[in-house]
């Protein structure tokens, strides 16, 4: 699966209608509702606010009063084709007075979404396990050398050293053989931007 780390906006015009696609990273349904509310405020007087989102395992789309399956489903199809997750695409349409027909609408919403994706920086998701490691001082150099992908977000130096961070799930087996306390917190999917 892939994702984006920041919002992208793109616009196309077809037969005097403006199609503005806003592609946003999301982590919850609440993000979807907030973004839709914000877009309706940012783009007032638009005729349609069609959208699709993927928050696996859930996928949803809306035609927002366009003919059935001419807007939301084409947007969702583009997101699926790019294997995107944690993503929301909203296409705002300002009607230009010329009807496009079902085929024209499908092409317009598909093209608007594709154009936004072309502008986006897409990264793969990788699984990371959030861990807490507690170990003696003499183990620190060895640990950092053997696990260069260890992402430490917080260090505490007391009687022992404690690292709060993320490791590749494949490193958990060998980590458990070291003389340290290993506390597993959660496994999450994160964007790999390096």
Q: Could you walk me through the main structural features you see in this protein, from its secondary elements to its overall organization?
A:
The protein is of the alpha+beta class. It has two domains: 2-120, Ribosomal Protein S5, domain 2, CATH 3.30.230; 125-191, Alpha-Beta Plaits, CATH 3.30.70. It has five helices and ten strands. Strands 1, 7, 8, 9 and 10 form a five-stranded antiparallel β-sheet that branches. It has a five-stranded antiparallel β-sheet with strand order 2-3-6-4-5, sandwiched between helices. Strand 2 (8-14) and strand 3 form a beta hairpin. The longest helix has 19 residues, at 101-119. It is elongated, with a radius of gyration of 22 Å. The mean pLDDT is 94.
Counting DSSP H or I runs of 4 or more residues, the number of helices is 5
Overall CATH architecture of the largest domain = 2-Layer Sandwich
H/E series, N to C? EEEHEEHEHEHEEHE
Question: SS-based structural class?
Answer: alpha+beta
The residue fraction in helices comes out at: 25-40%
Count of beta strands: 10
Total separate domains: 2
Mean pLDDT score = 94
State the shape.
elongated
Weakly predicted, low-confidence segments: none
**What is the level 1 CATH name of the largest domain?**
Alpha Beta
Task: Report the CATH superfamily of the largest domain.
Answer: Impact, N-terminal domain
Main β-sheet: number of strands, strand sense, barrel status?
Answer: 5 strands, antiparallel
Cα-based radius of gyration, to the nearest Å:
22 Å
Distance between the termini: 16 Å
User: β content, as a range?
Assistant: 35-45%
How is the CATH topology of the largest domain named?
Answer: Ribosomal Protein S5, domain 2
């Amino acid at each position: 699966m892939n994702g984006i780390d920041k919002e992208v906006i793109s616009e196309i015009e077809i037969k005097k209608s403006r199609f503005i696609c806003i592609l946003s990273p999301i982590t919850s349904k609440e993000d979807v509702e907030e973004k839709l509310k914000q877009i309706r405020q940012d783009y007032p007087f638009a005729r349609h606010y069609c959208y699709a989102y993927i928050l696996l395992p859930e996928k949803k789309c809306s035609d927002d009063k366009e003919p059935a399956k001419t807007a939301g489903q084409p947007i969702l199809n583009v997101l699926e084709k790019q294997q995107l997750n944690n993503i929301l695409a909203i296409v705002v349409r300002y009607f230009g007075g010329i009807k496009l027909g079902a085929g024209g609408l499908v092409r317009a919403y598909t093209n608007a979404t594709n154009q936004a994706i072309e502008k986006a920086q897409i990264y793969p998701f990788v699984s990371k396990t959030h861990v807490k490691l507690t170990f003696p001082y003499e183990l620190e150099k060895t640990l950092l050398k053997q696990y260069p992908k260890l992402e430490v977000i917080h260090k505490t130096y007391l009687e022992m050293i404690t690292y709060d961070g993320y490791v590749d799930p494949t490193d958990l087996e060998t980590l458990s053989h070291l003389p340290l306390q290993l506390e597993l917190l959660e496994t999450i999917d994160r964007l790999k931007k390096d």
